[in-house]
Protein: DUF1541 domain-containing protein
Amino acid sequence: MTAVHRKVHAAATAAAAIALLAGWGGTAEDDATQSPQSSMTSDSSASSSGTSEAMGGHKTDGGAPPEGIEQASSPTYPVGTRVTLTADRMPGMKGADATISDAFDTTAYSVSYTPTEGGERVTDHKWVVHEELEDAGDAPLEAGTEVVLAADHMAGMDGAEATIDSSTDETVYMVDLTMDGMKMTNHKWVVESEIQPAK
Structure:
């Protein structure tokens, strides 16, 4: 390779790197106004790392339930039941078909927290279960209680300081679903009032 070719190659590599980094420098507001096509592009790259922006930053594989959580003894929707989701926390969630992958008797909390990796504060995040709180004591915790999260279903959540916004003692479910072409397994969490029988 000649010196001229090396300079051209180096310049092209630098330009590509700048373009790539510029694409990652947007804000949460920019992400919210992306076109569906650009959103799908970011979803594809995000899914390779196990998370998806289109899915609210949730991991595509929610993994195992937390230790100590109690299986629901007689859930309305047993494991394997096909259901329709009524929650609309992520694009494509409301009306999505899902399959119950597990059901638990616990307290679920809506929380607000600042991600450990920095960034804007997340408000009214639904849901974190009692077993995903460090040294939580007895359930339920009152709104306004300060806690530390021990959940990892979203980036920057594990170890984050949080405030309890509200709680529910409804049956809590993990579900498998596909939204906007992206498959999620063991999605954490959906509470019973956010589910209806499959259409």
Observations:
- The chain has two domains: 3-50, 70-197.
- Residues 14 and 20 are 10 Å apart (CA to CA).
- The chain is about 20% helix and 30% strand.
